[in-house]
Design goal:
Pfam families: EFP, EFP_N, Elong-fact-P_C
Radius of gyration: 21 Å
Helix content: under 10%
Pathway: Protein biosynthesis; polypeptide chain elongation
GO molecular function: translation elongation factor activity
Number of helices: 0
Strand order of the largest sheet: 1-6-2-3-4-5
Number of strands: 16
InterPro entries: Elong-fact-P_C, NA-bd_OB-fold, Rib_uL2_dom2, Transl_elong_fac_P/YeiP, Transl_elong_KOW-like, Transl_elong_P/YeiP_cen, Transl_elong_P/YeiP_CS, Transl_elongation_fac_P
Subcellular location: Cytoplasm
Structural class: mainly beta
């Protein structure tokens, strides 16, 4: 059990039978009445974000999340197969479980699997990945004001806004948290 007074960003907790990670929290001490903690929590099972308010000092369950290194092997229809790097066990996740992550997953890529008491909740990607540009318009010289960008499609199908000097077959560093261009690799 953990007190809501000890909330930290990234902490995983169990509330009403669901597993949440703390995205934001704020301790509030009104002039009249009892103190409370206002929090924004992300459900690790379905990805929904909820706002919950707890009384100061209230205790809730702490969820111990396990992270293991796995390798993404291949996709077969809606199933995506991974292999545990230590035990070589293979398991599959559906496209619905990996909506955002599919924008960055390439075969043979190493990621971390997130599980709670044997239940697989999803995967954690590295903060950035290298992806090859497969389609983009050529940059036209003299078309630049400041910070001009164009659309580029990378090998996973993700569309990214990139500077005009990026060409097809360039390898880019892409931020997996926001899906934005960082630099050339």
């Amino acid at each position: 059990m953990i007190s809501v007074n000890d909330f930290k960003t990234g902490l995983t907790v169990e509330v009403d039978g669901d597993i949440y990670t703390v995205l934001e929290f704020q301790h509030v001490k009104p002039g009249k009445g009892a103190a409370f903690v206002r929090s924004k929590l992300k459900n690790l099972r379905n990805g929904n974000t909820v706002e919950k308010t707890f009384r100061a000092g209230e205790t809730i369950g702490r969820a111990i999340i396990e992270n293991r290194d796995v390798q993404y092997l291949y996709a077969s229809g809606q199933e995506h197969t991974f292999m545990d790097n230590e035990t070589y066990d293979q398991f599959s996740l559906t496209s619905d479980q990996l909506k955002w992550e599919l924008n960055f997953l390439k075969e043979n890529m190493n990621v971390k699997i997130v599980s709670y008491q044997g239940e697989i909740l999803g995967i954690n990607l590295p903060n950035s990945v290298e992806l090859r540009v497969i389609e983009t318009e050529p940059g036209i010289k003299g078309n630049t004001a400041t910070g001009a960008t164009k659309n580029a499609k990378v090998e996973t199908g993700l569309n990214v806004q990139v500077p005009l000097f990026i060409n097809e077959d360039d390898v880019l560093l892409i931020d997996t948290r926001e899906g934005k261009y960082i630099s050339r690799a």
